[in-house]
Each structure stands twice: as structure tokens, then as C-alpha cells.
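Protocol step 4 of 6: structure prediction from sequence.
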Amino acid sequence: MRNALCILLGAAGLWLGFPNPVAHLPLLALAYPLALLLLGLGATGRWSAFRLGWLTGIAGSSACLYWLALPVHEYGQLPWVLAVPCGVAIGAYVGLYGGLFCLVARLTRDRLAPFRRGLFLGCAWLLLEMLRGVFLTGFPWLTLSAAFVPWPVAIQGVAVVGAYGLSGLLVAVVCWTMGAIAPECGPRCPGVRRSVSPSSLAQTLACALGASLVAFGLVGYGAYILSRGLPKDGEAFRVALVQGNIEQDQKWEPAFQRATVERYLSLSKDAVAAGHPDLVVWPETAMPFYFQEHKEFGPAIRAFAAANRTPVLVGTPGYVNAPVKRGFLLYNRAMLVDAAGGDAGHYDKEHLVPFGEYAPPGLDMPFLETLMQGVGDFTPGVSVAPLRLGNLALGILICYETIFPELAQQRVADGARPRSSTCNCRRCGPWSRAATCCAAPIPAFPPSSTRTGASPNAAACSGRR
């Protein structure tokens, strides 16, 4: 019964702690590592600890990633009976790391005192998130720090320790809090067995002090950074974010191309008239054709930029000729059109979505051809330098890339100010923006343009160069 309650606590905390259709309560995300800690310390053996942690991870992660079944059903045309297990399978993979953490907690039970255990388990969580970010091309969704994006004051520490580092600190706080409450918690955990020995009292005080310093330190640092506001020096700039709200199953139809272009141009004209932005940002593959060669729509977009003296960042597929089987390499591209209507450079998406934008190596065999229908054949980009627009250096991330903290950090290291992200958001679930902002927090959210929403709209945001 106790194990069942812990599993329910961890799964419910994970689901409610991340964006979902009911309520997003970030603090509840900490119930997930807490449940794994309790299960690990109370497990009768190593395999039991791993199994219980994995079950908790499967339940919580599958609930959070429920939306993966939607595009598989709608666009992959799989029946629900096959689409739903796709989300569960990904949840089982993400939950696997919960099982590993629970196993590590079990191994520390009789080897480390509570304070050292908290420090060790915080580092273990950090390493497990890093591993998940690189293993099998990486899938760093549901990083603990991303849950706190609605609370900017809590995530400013990412600028110092990184997203994975912040996750590790949060887990250490959870472990130390538990150590302060139940310093001798062991095989019958969560039963509290207090001791009045000096060493036990020292552990209680150390855990309480450690949890307090880290928690108040993170919040205090965040409050200090936010109180400074945006930099006072530099030129102010305005960005218009345009969202066309065009359904995925329509946008690639040739018959809808003209309507798509006209909608984006109309929304962009409204944005220019309302706010005179310095840059207009369109979503990932907003233009469902080869912008670089289209003889009608390409010039129309360039003419808009030139007529309004406003640069436009356009999401579009692109290609380069190459000595390969089909004669060219296909890219998921963000093209920057300058205020004169000319090319100011482009960025090609470097971290592609497996099974969505490319077939992983070894899965392009003939007998899998039917299963892999609809999978793109994009090539990873290699040039990640910021796009230059006067004094502005744009660091671009496209959709799936926003969940990789190291990519955002690399853009900033390369000199990007600010970052901009574009997304084909119908595919990305309710909280892709959370991952974006947690990767490299700033006092204001970075410009992020998505394809779908309740209605066609354009929004403006401002900042400094």
C-alpha cells in the first residue's frame, strides 16, 4: 500500500508539475524525486527499487507525454489502439531514468549519511538528465528545472549552473529536506525513526541548513536578476511574432499555398502598422514550399519586406545540390530576409526529430518502408553562427531544438543576443515553450513564434540589442 501511494504521489506530481490541460503547479514536480527517494530508501532490494522507480516514471512520463499520440493518430493515420502505445513507449523510456535514480537511492541508503546522500543524489540526477540529453540522439524532455519556467524567479540560476545543474540542486533540496525531517529514514521509510545522538542532530542541522541555503539562494538570486530588468544601454528593438493557425493537414496542400502566404502577409502588415517592429518572425516551415526558388511567392515576401523596410525571419524548407542519390540535401530552414528584400543569411536546423524529420540509421530498410512512410528526409544543418541584422545577432532554435539546453547555451556563447525560436507547435505538446526558456533564462521570454493557436494573430514584444 505504501509503495502504491508513493507511485501515485510521484506520477501525479510529475503530471501536475508540468503543463497539462488541468492545472500547472510547478512546485508539485518536486514530488517526483521525493517519491523516487522514498521508494528507493524503503525498497527491499536493488531490483525492487529499480522496478518501483520505473513504474513511477512510466506512469508520470506517459501522462505528461500523452499528446504524442495525437500527431501519430492524426497525421500518421494510425488507429488509437496503436497511437496511444507510442506515447507510453516514450514515457517508458523517460521513466527508465527514474528507475535508475531510485536504484541509486537504494544503494546510498546504508552507505551515506543524509547530508552526503542529498549531495550525491543531486549529482546523480544531474548526470542522468545529461545522459538522457545525449543517449540515442537525446530526449531531454521533462527536465525538472523546466517545470519552473512559469516562475522566472526560480530559474535565473540556470545562467550560472545550467538547466541540468538547476535540476540537480532542486533534487538535493528535496533530499536534504527529507533528511532534516527523517535523518534516520531507512528500510521502513517513510517511517520516522529519530535519534538523539549528536551525529543525528548534526545531520539534521546540516540537511536543514543545506536545503535552506540552496532554496533561498536560488530565489534570492532570481529576485536580484529580475529586479535589474533589461539592460539600460543599447538600442531598443521590437519583434512581431506572427501565428497563422493553419492546420498541419492543409498547409502542405498546393491548393492552400496561396492562402497561406496571403494570411501571413496580411497578419504581418497589421503588425507593422500597429507597432513598427524591427523584425517579423514567422514559424517553422510557415512557407510550405522552397522559398529560395519559388518564382511567385518568394518575390512577394521579399517585396513585403522591402516595402515596409522590415526584415522577416521565414520558416521554410531549403536545399542544396549535392552528389547524393537524389541529387540534393534537404534542410529545415529559417531564412532571414533583410529590410531591402535581400538574403541576410539562414539557419538550418541541426538537431532533427527522429522518426519525424529523418529515419534513424538502420531503420531505412525495405521491409520497414511502409511503417516509415511520412517520415521526412532532412539533413542536419552545420552552420549555427548567429544571423546578423545590423547590430543584432540572432541565435536561432527550431522547435525540437528548444528542449536541448546546451544548444541555447551555445547560441549565447556564439554571441547571440537575443535568441529566437520558431515552432510547428501543434506537434510539440502544451509546453514546448517551457523547455525553450529554461535553457538559458533572461529577464524576459525570448521571441518564439508558433504555427497554430486559437486564431490567427500577431503579437509584439520588445527588448534591447
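Step 5 (inspection) to follow. The chain has two domains: 2-228, 236-464.
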